[in-house]
């Protein structure tokens, strides 16, 4: 007897097969079962998506037989299949592509014997009750956040300052869910696991009582074998807590009860190839699906997002009441504003003692003439000599004092303003650490000839190659094209070609010169280190470099955004952003949001130890000190920043008030890429596609970096005030895009793709 099935398999992105294929089986199979099926001459992994009870009408001889079933694996749940269907539909990709990409790659390769061997290993239950005696006492704000979270069912946004102890809230929320239900599973997502090696250890330690192998990691840094192992443990329900990156949102977790998304604003939650999903958005959707799951009536599945600088989308959702908001404004160990005030009045001015010796920064500034430095509060008037105004700490919740350096009033071409240099030197002399942040790696972004104007352009991209002094190369950060630095200008022969601008490599060198005479308390020379993608290429390098920072072996740490986020540094009292202006006037409407959160995150690395928090500072060098973004930063005032950005976006109908998609096209010639997009849009116009009257496609334009690796790139923005209309339109437009692609004039098109809810425009 034959059984008829719909099976999804991984289909090439642009093949004609979008939906499931029909197969036949001699024995009954469950929906969700993993099978091996013939496809062309190959045998591929597939997922049974549906049964066809009336398949008997089909001609048996035309329908191929399922080749095998992955025995021992429970079928993928209905909720998982719904999640995959939604993802494929919403992000305009094929079902098979999304479904199969969500499975560990090794699953496709193992034969039955190998798989059985993996599944054989019995997991013995070694769990015990959690010993809560040595847990730290929660702060009042942490207690309140957890209580409010428990009392609600909506998606929650934990709006917690840097260092307010958000991680502890995640740990407690997870512990509670796991203790209530012996089968419950928790998924904790972080932007990049490799950046915070401490975190996994912290989770493993906290949940050691669950027994061996109950906490697993799921991210792309794992070997294929490790990834399979984690996935199988999650799918079987053995793993109780999964710590993962964006890919983990699509893992099979049959008893999922809580999803945590740490640093929910982070751009790395958006997948940038294939199905360009937002793992944060899918987490919210998944929680809803899991809660509605009637096969496992296990009550609600909650989602907890956390950030000090939430995405404007999530923030807006808290304003409309769609999400619940949990506030933690104060850093751990810092008395609340009211307490601070009280102690200050009774104990006289206690801050004078703790503040850095001398409002010396201010002196240093005025000695150099004028008021080039616009510090946070009006210090000149209010601050007692050597301190800052008494209420500052309580108001700042232990966050660093933000000082803006007006670069218009600093010596020409200076990279580090003299007052900032003084402040760093003082830190070194006191044995404190400073973190200098510059979001540009390499030695100099451009090498140029001042005689003829030659610049180190990449021959394959519309971008300059970056000068890396360490191996004397010019490297393109877009296509990777690398060459030795020429001895003389390739265009005019002048031997005097010089670096223009600064990257982290040059900044490190420059700081070493500037601080050469400065001694540490032990009399030794200052120690400067750099952490960026170049210094951490080797496995384990980042870990050992971070360890030496934590151990206090480094006085001044220079780096890119790699060091600005997430690390729990305990001895840093000064953070400086050397050149953040670029993002202020970007054409990308999300650039200010990204800059603000990056600076808040960076500032959040300073003064994390409450003993230092009062004396900690965040310096920002800028030519636009009065820019509202820096005003808000000065006050650590995300809500004010968000209100202003949201008002602008509302006026312009942009996210979260409007919805958009980008269609990107790549070809050897720009005209072909643009022509393809415009032709497809014209076809849509002609056919009056569903939703078209609420959707605006804009003319195709070259992408900001127009050419990469000799491929011309163009994009078309499509906007709508209605998410549903945009979705209907895109779904109907897909076939037209395929049709257009087949026209002779667009033969040379290399590829095209739709990006729904793009994060960079
Ligand atoms: N209740 C508490 N009592 C004492 N220390 C705590 C408490 N909660 C958290 N901590 C400690 O405070 C520090 C900061 O906490 P955590 O790293 O969770 O902050 P965060 O809010 O995640 O900050 P960021 O957003 O900057 O990563 C950590 O060293 C943590 O161990
Ligand atoms: Zn290039």
TrEMBL record:
Catalytic activity: Couples ATP hydrolysis with the unwinding of duplex DNA by translocating in the 3'-5' direction; ATP + H2O = ADP + phosphate + H(+)
Family annotation (SUPFAM superfamilies): P-loop containing nucleoside triphosphate hydrolases
The keyword Lipid metabolism appears for this protein: no
Class in the EC hierarchy, top level: isomerase
Residues that bind Zn(2+) 2: 458, 461, 476, 479
Matches recorded under Pfam families: DEAD, Helicase_C, PriA_3primeBD, PriA_C, Zn_ribbon_PriA
The protein's Enzyme Commission number: 5.6.2.4
All residue ranges annotated as the Helicase ATP-binding domain in the record: 147-328
Gene3D superfamilies (alphabetical): P-loop containing nucleotide triphosphate hydrolases, PriA, 3(prime) DNA-binding domain
Keywords associated with the record: ATP-binding, DNA replication, DNA-binding, Helicase, Hydrolase, Isomerase, Metal-binding, Nucleotide-binding, Primosome, Zinc
Start-end of Low complexity biased regions: 348-359
Obligatory cofactor(s): Zn(2+)
Family designation: Belongs to the helicase family. PriA subfamily.
Record text on subunit structure and interactions: Component of the replication restart primosome.
Role, per record: Initiates the restart of stalled replication forks, which reloads the replicative helicase on sites other than the origin of replication. Recognizes and binds to abandoned replication forks and remodels them to uncover a helicase loading site. Promotes assembly of the primosome at these replication forks.
Stated name of the protein: Replication restart protein PriA
